[in-house]
Design brief:
Layout (H helix, E strand, L loop, with lengths): L65 H16 L1 H33 L4 H11 L1 H4 L1 H10 L8 H20 L10 H32 L4 H29 L3 H12 L2 H5 L17 H6 L1 H23 L2 H22 L2 H16 L4 H9 L3 H6 L15 H27 L4 H15 L1 H7 L2 H4 L4 H31 L5 H29 L16 H11 L4 H8 L10 H4 L19 E2 L2 E2 L2 E2 L18
Antiparallel strand pairs: 1-2, 2-3
Helix pairs in contact: 1-2, 2-3, 2-7, 2-8, 2-9, 3-7, 3-12, 3-15, 3-22, 5-12, 6-7, 6-9, 8-17, 12-13, 12-22, 13-14, 13-22, 14-21, 14-22, 14-24, 17-21, 18-21, 18-24, 19-23
């Protein structure tokens, strides 16, 4: 499914501590790399398994099933972490990361296509803008760490971002931008990007704290992982159930009005202190320039990545195809070269591999979304914003494409996690990467079959074939490819700098997706895919060739690179010997950083300091490994 289900940063994020059935430490017990996962339990704590293998099951081994088990689970979890902290998790993960993210990113399609009347290329350019904050997640965390507000690193940032997110959602819901048409699409995309900024910031700051909590109470860590993901999945499914239905009934603006409530609610628990955070003493609340100087390599790399993402967004609007292509290639090469100066060599090589894995799978978001949901000739004639109709397309409604398919895609993602554990978790890294790459390229053939309308020739209706292929099979295969990347990242993160490592790797992979979207914009615009063919219909005659090249052939270049960039090791093997000591630019154990206090194991001057990205050992999610 064009851009709604593919390559979106946070939709498929998983905790390594939640890998099904992975019991015991890597190389001797505990979690992956004895370290951390994207927002998962650090230090090799017991792991959660939905099937009961490794660590505890969802409700734990001490309870029975059913209502009594649920009650015991809630009592145990609230007793361990407190109801206020659990309420903060619900606020952040059900309402913001779950509902709000799903609502904003899925409603973008009917908003730009039906409400503003954008072309497929214009829509793809807008998506690049909307997703920019996820590539800036490292800088967001570093900024909150360097510049405390009123003595806090988290609360004021969460509250301010929530107020900003609410304001822009209300603007999207209230402003009659359809009168201006596609000319105001960049303004609407900027508003959506500011809402995405809230989601990226809340996600980053909250997940660091709950990872820290799990490290403090490893015996109850799996219960907290269950709470996090139960809330997240509930929010996703709730939003999926509403987006398509509302878009078909009253238009996409209504969804942004509903979403504003979910954006604002996080202000209350943040300001009430539901997210534990010690206030810095007076005299230590100023900018932490010494910390920035100490870790200038990491800071500069994250800053360069963020600047590159912003520049790519600008060029998606105003640059020529040649400039976009050159910019994407130059920034990709420069950032990856910089990674070798900051990251351990084995880690930098894996980072290059995963970055270009994202880049080489060209995201054709606009073309595919428009092909699947484009209007018939009659519908187009009755619409004031329709530019051209799709002559022989599936003509899926928003309810089907954004609700039914989204719900089933979420289920397919979990099937993929289970399939990974059952089939591939015992494989070595190299074969699991190249095999899943090949399978994913083959799976892209389902789009090709539908574009060529071959499924109708053998009597399979569009809705059934799309659900079986592009929704279920594709998302299972995507997770099979995604999970080993998460495991490898955790294995290669040097001890004590997992947070910085995940920030860098997550940012790289998100920027890789942005480059992929930009390349998709270049090729669709070059070949005029989705433009008026001259007779009132949309021209998708070259879409098949773009799918073959961008989804089935180009990604295969990563197969031989697997043997050059990925370590020849088992997924359960401890790879710390490959990374050794972290480069100086990443070290966090340097003692006295400012002459006033020490930053050791999360404590400053004898008082606990809730450091963010640079001063904490708590891992952050790789957004979008997202």
């Amino acid at each position: 499914m064009g851009g709604i289900l593919r390559g979106d940063p946070e939709l498929v994020e998983v905790e390594l501590g939640a890998l099904p059935g992975r019991a015991g430490r890597a190389g001797g017990g505990g979690g992956p790399d004895e370290g951390s996962s994207p927002a998962g339990p650090p230090s090799g704590g017991p792991e959660w398994s939905p099937r009961g293998g490794g660590g505890r099951s969802s409700w734990g081994r001490r309870t029975g099933g059913g209502c009594c088990g649920l009650r015991a689970y809630l009592e145990r979890t609230s007793g361990a972490f407190g109801w206020r902290f659990l309420a903060m998790i619900t606020s952040a993960h059900l309402a913001v990361k779950g509902f709000l993210y799903q609502a904003v990113q899925t409603a973008a399609l009917p908003y730009f296509m039906d409400y503003l009347g954008c072309s497929p290329m214009e829509y793809q350019a807008m998506i690049i803008i909307v997703w920019t904050p996820w590539a800036m997640k490292g800088v967001i965390g570093i900024f909150s760490d360097l510049f405390p507000i009123l003595g806090y690193h988290k609360r004021p940032y969460i509250a301010a971002s929530a107020i900003l997110g609410t304001a822009v959602l209300l603007l999207l819901a209230a402003l009659p931008l359809a009168r201006a048409g596609p000319a105001v699409a960049p303004f609407a995309a900027l508003l959506m990007a500011l809402c995405m900024l809230e989601q990226a910031l809340v996600d980053l700051l909250v997940e660091g704290k709950y990872a820290e909590k799990m490290a403090e109470r490893p015996e109850t860590g799996p219960d907290l992982v269950t709470w996090v993901w139960a809330n997240y999945q509930t929010g996703v499914l709730l939003a999926a159930a509403l987006v398509g239905t509302l878009a078909d009934a009253v238009g996409p603006r209504a969804m942004y009005a509903v979403a504003s409530v979910f954006a604002l609610q996080v202000v209350f628990p943040a300001l009430k202190g539901y997210l534990p955070e010690e206030r810095l003493p007076r005299g230590r609340r100023g900018p932490r320039w010494a910390l920035a100087r100490e870790h200038r390599g990491t800071f500069l790399l994250a800053l360069a990545m963020s600047a590159s993402a912003v520049g790519l967004s600008v060029l998606s609007l105003y640059g020529s195809n040649v400039v976009r292509l050159a910019y994407g290639l130059v920034t990709a090469a420069t950032l990856n070269a910089g990674a070798f100066l900051v990251l351990p060599r084995a880690m930098a090589k894996a980072n290059v591999y995963m970055f270009f894995t994202q880049c080489t799978y060209i995201l054709l978001t606009g073309a595919l979304d428009y092909f699947y949901t484009g209007k018939t000739a009659e519908q187009c004639a009755a619409s004031a914003t329709c530019r051209c109709y799709v002559r022989e397309g599936p003509h899926f409604s928003a309810t089907y494409y954004l609700t039914v398919a989204q719900v089933l895609a979420a289920v397919a993602g979990w099937l993929g996690v289970t399939a990974y554990q059952s089939l591939l978790s015992s494989w070595r890294f190299r074969p699991v990467f190249w095999v899943t790459t090949v399978i994913r390229c083959i799976g892209a053939g389902f789009d090709l079959v539908m574009i060529q309308r071959l499924n109708l020739r053998v009597g399979i209706p569009d809705k059934i074939f799309y659900i079986l292929g592009s929704t279920i099979i594709y998302n299972v295969v995507y997770m099979l490819e995604f999970m080993p990347a998460v495991v490898l990242t955790s294995r290669l993160c040097p001890k004590k700098v997992e947070t910085v490592s995940y920030a860098i790797l997550g940012g790289f992979q998100n920027y890789g997706q942005q480059v992929s979207r930009a390349l998709g914009l270049v090729v669709t615009e070059t070949y005029g895919v989705g433009e008026d063919a001259g007779d009132g219909s949309c021209d998708f005659s070259r879409l098949s060739w773009l799918v073959v090249a961008g989804h089935m052939v180009l990604p295969l270049v990563m197969v031989p690179l697997t043997f050059l960039l990925i370590p020849d090791a088992a997924q359960t093997e401890d790879l710390q010997h490959l990374v050794g000591g972290a480069p100086k630019a990443m070290r966090l154990d340097s003692g006295d950083l400012s002459g006033e206090f020490e930053l050791k194991e999360g404590r400053a001057g004898g008082e606990e300091e809730d450091a963010g990205l640079l001063g904490s050992g708590a891992p952050i999610a790789s957004p979008h490994m997202d």
